Structure formats: C-alpha cells, structure tokens
Amino acid sequence: MTATLLRPRGLDDARAAAGPQRVGVVTSAVGLGLTVAGLDARIGDVVTVGADGGPQTAVEVVATDSNGVRCMPLGRLTGITAGTPARPTGRPVLVPTGVGLFGRVLDGLGRPIDGRGRLDSDGAVPIDHPTPDAMARTRIDAPMQLGVRVLDTLTTVGRGQRMGLFAGSGVGKSSLLSMIARGSDAAVNVIALVGERGREVREFLEDDLGPEGLARSVVVVSTSDEPALMRLRAAFVATRIAESFRDAGADVVLMMDSLTRVATAQREIGLSVGEPPATRGYPPSTFSVLAGLLERAGTDRVGSITGLYTVLVDGDDHNEPIADSARSILDGHVVLDRKLAVTGHFPSVDALGSVSRVASKVTTPEQRAAATVLRKVMAARQGAQDLLDVGAYQRGTNPLVDAAVDHRGAIEAFLQQGMGERADAASSWHALGTLVARLGVTD
Q1: For 219-249, what is each residue's pLDDT tens digit?
Q2: Whole-number percent of the chain with pLDDT over 70
Q3: Residue from 40, 10, 6 nearest 23 by CA
Q4: Domain 23-91 belongs to what topology?
Q5: Nearest CA to 265 among 308, 312, 307?
C-alpha cells in the first residue's frame, strides 16, 4: 500500500519536470492586477510572472474569462510589462502547520519574517478548508476564560464562540487583544494583524504581547502597504493555521485585527476585477467572503476555535455595512466606548452595550443572577445620569440608582483592569459576587 501511494507521486513529479510546460504571457497590467493569456489555471492557483533568469513575482488567479485569467499580486509588480512570461505552479497557496509555529511571526503567505530562520513545521496544507458541517458541530457548553474581568463575567464567552470587538480607531482594541492572548486558558493563540501600520507591529509583539504571550502564539502579519491580496490572504492563512490545531483536538483562540481591513482588501480586489460597487462601494463578494471566513471558526467534531474579530467602525457608526454584516453573523459583540477611553477607563468596554449570545449556556444560574444585578444597577445610573449631573435626583427615588451612586468607586474598580493584571475566571466571579453583596440589591 505504501509503495502504491508513494511511487505514482514520484513519477508524476518526474513527468511534470521533464514534460513541456505551458507558458502564458501578460497581456495587460492595469490598476491592482494583471491579465494573463494562454494559461490553463484555476481560480486560487498561484502563478509566477517574470522573465527567464530574472526576478519572479507570485500572483494568484482571482477571476477568469474567455480572454484569459485575471490575477492579483502577492508581491510588487514593478518591472512587469505586456509580454512578460507567466508560468502556472498548479497549486494554491500552502500554509505551514504544527507546534513548531509557536512563537513565530509569519507574513500573509505563511513565510517567517522574524529573522529566526526556517520554520520547524509539520508540513504544509492548502489554504482552503471545508467549513464544519452545521449538524456535526458540537454544542457550545463550556466557558472560555479570557483573563479580562468584565468580559468573563458580564459578557461570558464560550469555547467555540465567535465575538466581535466593535470600536473606532484608537480606543484600545489591540491592547485588549494582547490582554486576552496572555490571560486566556486556550492551548493556542493565533493572531492575525491585517492592514496594521508597520510601526505598530513590533510594538504589539514586544510591548503588548510580550515574550509570555508570544510563546504560545502564532502571529500572522500583513501591513497596510502590502497588496490587497496579501492582506486578504493573511486572514485566511491565520484561520487555516487555527483550523489545523482544531483538527488535532486543541482549543484555539483566533484573534483578528481587523475584520474591516479584510473587507477593505476584498473591496479593492472585487472592484479591480470588474465587480459592480454596491453598499457604500463594497461589491457583493465582500459580504460572502466575510461570511465564509467567519463560519470557518467555531466548534467541530473535535476541538474548537474561539474567534475574536475587531471591527473598526467607520466614524464610530456601529450600523455601517461591515459592522452590521459582522454583527449578524457573529455570536455576540463587545462594544468599546471612546468616552470611556478618553477618561482613562481601561478596558473601555461598554458592558451594557455588549452582548454574548451563548452566555446563558455556559454560566450557572447564580452567576447569571449576579451579572444581571450589576447590569441593572449600571443601567439605572445611566438612565438617571442627566438628573445626577444637574443635582436634580432625589435620593430614595430609586434603590438601584442609590446603590450605583453609593458604590460607584467599587463598580468602577471591578470594571477596570490594568494591562499587566491577569484575572482568572474564578477570581472574577468571586469579585462580582462580593460586589453584588455590597450593593444590597436582589435580582
């Protein structure tokens, strides 16, 4: 059986090397992509473009018609002209896998960029992977500790849940992700930095994530100056690496910053190949790509991927198309509030505006009761804030407001947490129970 499996593969490789190779030519290079004629290539295949003996540029087939294939670059197109030879590789993008990836930093194609030499991987797998069958997914019935007090208690996340972190720019999304990377009880962290500023990558790795967080993480980076296809592929490479660990039975946390930049990359690709602009300039493929990407996370027959996706809301508008589409697919959302951020409240989580759709399935009745009491007290204060600001509130009118005013400091202390502070789930629930007892309010 072994000889049967191995021998034909060797013969195929030899025949492919000895046989004639079909070479296409670039017929046009316009905008973000180029058109190649004379190639027998499929969508998703990688094609190398460049003259014999000269530098080669990898491109990927993203569309095809009777005139040829439309390709998007995975590198720079400098020097490419009409008539430049193009050769198919006959394969899609391959992604490295295995525990040898721990602590490594990869680019959007899964290649190491941390200067630590070659990867000690278990091999490479195609970037595409079937989405888990809806009827084969295991139920989400266990909590995932994130190490952030407000998230573990008021918006409890389950293993295999997909959550969105919605915020404008500069509100603390990356810092919150780094806290989760260090404080979660997941076996593996896979972090995708898509469209990040180049200056911030080392700062995130060295200051926010640190050696402790990086030791059990795999980081995939594609900066904002790279081609749109590289940015898009970084999201799928990170997801494929997470899937490989899930298939081995591990519980993985996949963090992606940001989903909005993934959508922006797909918009550039779609418009470049001739798709019509639809909602706010996003072509229809953008929303199908987002759905396909997000549905690949979650539970499967074994293992789980808990997905945390930041969504950079345009102009702090939480109803813009990408935010609205992501919220409809995800299993909950955490809202980061700029008003809290500017006052030094960190993490700047708007607990009342955040929702976990599986919290009731992964918490006990006592835990849910405690969380509900605190939410009611916070909501009561929010509703009476105008009266409190002008001094028109009369004490005794509402016991919930009285409790919120009397214990404001304790509530704020519970909701806030330092960057270097780690809070395990058990201590967070104990702190919430102690706070609720002090409030003297029953559900």
Answers
A1: 999 999 999 999 999 999 999 999 999 999 9
A2: 95
A3: 40
A4: Thrombin, subunit H (2.40.10)
A5: 312
The predicted structure's pLDDT at residue 4: 34
Per residue in 114-138, pLDDT (tens digit) is 999 999 988 899 999 999 999 999 9
- In this predicted model, what pLDDT tens digit does every residue of 254-284 receive, in sequence order? 999 989 999 999 999 999 888 899 888 899 9
Q: Give phi and psi for 309, each to the nearest 5.
A: -120, 120
pLDDT computed for residue 15 by the predictor: 55
pLDDT of residue 315: 65
Q: How far apart are CA 305 and CA 272, in angstroms?
A: 33
User: 356, 223, 231, 213: which is closest to 293 by C-alpha?
Assistant: 231
- Predicted confidence at residue 5, as pLDDT, reads 36
328: number of Cβ within 10 Å: 9
Does domain 95-359 bear CATH number 3.40.50.12240?
yes
Do 35 and 49 meet the contact criterion of CB atoms below 8 Å apart?
no
The Cα-based distances of 310 to 269, 368, 442 in angstroms read 21, 26, 35
Quickly tell me which residue has 């009561």 as its tokens. 380
For 431, other C-beta atoms within 10 Å of its C-beta total 16
- Report the candidate in 290, 119, 103 with the shortest Cα–Cα distance to residue 194: 290
Instruction: List the chain residues with pLDDT less than 70.
Output: 1-20, 315-316, 443
CATH architecture of 366-439: Up-down Bundle (1.20)
Residue boundaries of the structural domains of the chain: 23-91, 95-359, 366-439
Query: Among 404, 385, 264, 263, which Cα is nearest to 329's?
Result: 263
How far is it, in rounded angstroms, from Cα 186 to Cα 189? 7
